[in-house]
Amino acid sequence: MAKGELLCLVLNKSFLPFDIIPWQKAITLEFLGRGLAVEYHPTRKIKSARREWDVPIVIKVNSIRSTLVQGPPTRMMIYYRDGFKCAYCGKMLKDNELTIDHVVPKAKGGKWTWENLVTCCRECNFRKKEEIWIPRFATPAKPKFLFPQYIRLKESVDGKTKRVWEKYIPQSLVRSLAL
Ligand SMILES: [Zn+2]
Questions:
Q1: How many A from CA of 100 to the centre of ligand 1?
Q2: Distance 99 CA to ligand 1 centre (A)
Q3: Is residue 1 a part of any domain in this protein?
Q4: How many whole angstroms from 20 Cα to the centroid of ligand 1?
């Protein structure tokens, strides 16, 4: 068996990704006719005593769920948007080592908005204080899509799956997350 988990990207009615599920669930959806397999894994199969199953790695369901971003961001959404990188020095860190920075400081009227918040390491946040710095490693804009599952799970699958998935991840998402 090749390395990597067998996971399946789930697309909505408009072919936009909104979830990632284990292969067992993907095969069940296909078997029950509740999902249409769009892509199968090019080499891996699941074998039972009686037959071999192709494994869907992209499946489309009849849902209108989406990853469209609505409303104000949460701290975690900003981290995801910025790819867990400090906007000022580019250092990549874990969420518990990161902070949120107001580009225009609160004291100067800066608000909690997609356009004014960036991911920041503690060191830069401490040094920046009430100054305004240019975030060189982040684009403080509201992303059209935000798909946290993808960031979390894309490293668990093998290269073949990842290459197929990339065709279904909107460019705007890829750009905003600097993947
Ligand atoms: Zn920094």
A1: 11
A2: 10
A3: no
A4: 31
- Does the residue 173 lie in any domain? yes
CATH number for the domain that contains residue 100: 1.10.30.50
Whole-number Å distance between alpha carbons of 109 and 21: 42
Comparing 39 with 172, the larger pLDDT belongs to 39
- Model confidence band, residue 149 (pLDDT cutoffs 50, 70, 90): confident
The residues placing their C-beta within 5 Å of ligand 1, an ion, are 86, 88-89, 121, 124
Given a cut of 60, whether residue 174 has pLDDT beyond it is: no
Our count of domains for the chain comes to 2
Stretch 142-156: mean pLDDT: 80
**pTM score, whole prediction:** 0.68
Given this model, what pLDDT does residue 179 score? 43
Give the structural domain span for 43.
7-67+144-177
CA neighbor of 61 nearest in space, from 6, 9, 22? 9
**How far apart are the C-alpha atoms of 85 and 120, rounded to whole Å?**
7
Distance 173 CA to ligand 1 centre (A): 23
pLDDT > 90 in the chain, percent: 68
75: helix, strand or coil: helix
Ligand 1 center from residue 175 Cα (angstroms): 21
Report the first-to-last Cα separation within the chain, whole angstroms: 27
